[in-house]
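Subject: for your reference before the review

Hello V.,

The reviewers asked for a structural picture of the protein, and I figured it would be easier to keep everything in one thread rather than splitting it across files. Below is the amino acid sequence we used in the manuscript, unchanged from the supplementary table.
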Amino acid sequence: MAASGEFNPAKRTAEGDVEALTKRVKELEAAQALTRKNPTEFDPYLQNRVNAQTLTQYILMSTKGDKQLAMLMNSIQHACKVVSNAIEKAGPAGLYGLAGTENATGDDVKKLDIIADDIWIECLQRSGVCGLLVSEEQEKGIVIEDKTKRGPFCVAFDPLDGSSNIDCNVSVGSIFSVYRRKSPESECCTEADIIRPGTEIIVAGYCMYGAATELVITFAEGVQRFALDPALGEFLFVSDMKMDPKGGKKIFSCNEGNSLQWDSPILSFVENCKDAGYSSRYVGSMVSDVHRTLL
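And here is what came back from the structure prediction:
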């Protein structure tokens, strides 16, 4: 043992290591400071694109291990992306105008109605988890008969609502709702599997195609809003949609050109809205009108 005041090589070595380590840390901090990027006005934009939750992530977390439901939701979001792309390219591709036919409800069919319908049917059939599809564009429901290619879900949808607005570049949308079949899975689905109260819907939503493509869905819990980032090809989470407890904006949407065919209670309600200071906002596309009213 070294006496007090005597030279201690071990102590001197330890002090030297600490000094060298401290010096190295300062060098690294200085180098990092030189390479650190200065903040810019674009940082929030970039951080949102990198850090925002995608719809795919949300689906995987919210379905809680239900692989069939996850597959269905991913098929729906894929259909929305493909329809959005078709609408975006409709002008240059010559897809405006009528197709020369009528749909099941007697409406004149646009070219994009047929394309959107084909897209939705193809995506849902290929998911392998649907047993019955009901489209506004089809006279009858589409029953999936192959046992190896069907599942527990029945989907009702309007592939392109408000398509009369397509030619004038006004927002349109897709609407869908999903039921879980009640009939035995060993048998084909029947109409009774889907002609049921709305309270039995397990998933519902709409996709709006406009200045941006937005998908609003409800399943699991609450109502969520996602916007499509075309550069990434992903729907990114925007916000939870909640009604203002104070009532929100004072607007109403309706086609008053049909008022001569309205029942008295509807006429009275619209007049009451006007008397109460509500403003009329009507696009002619249900998805757009509902989206604005909810926001």
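For the response letter, the relevant points are probably these. The chain is about 35% helix and 20% strand. The radius of gyration is 29 Å.

Happy to draft the paragraph if you're swamped.

O.
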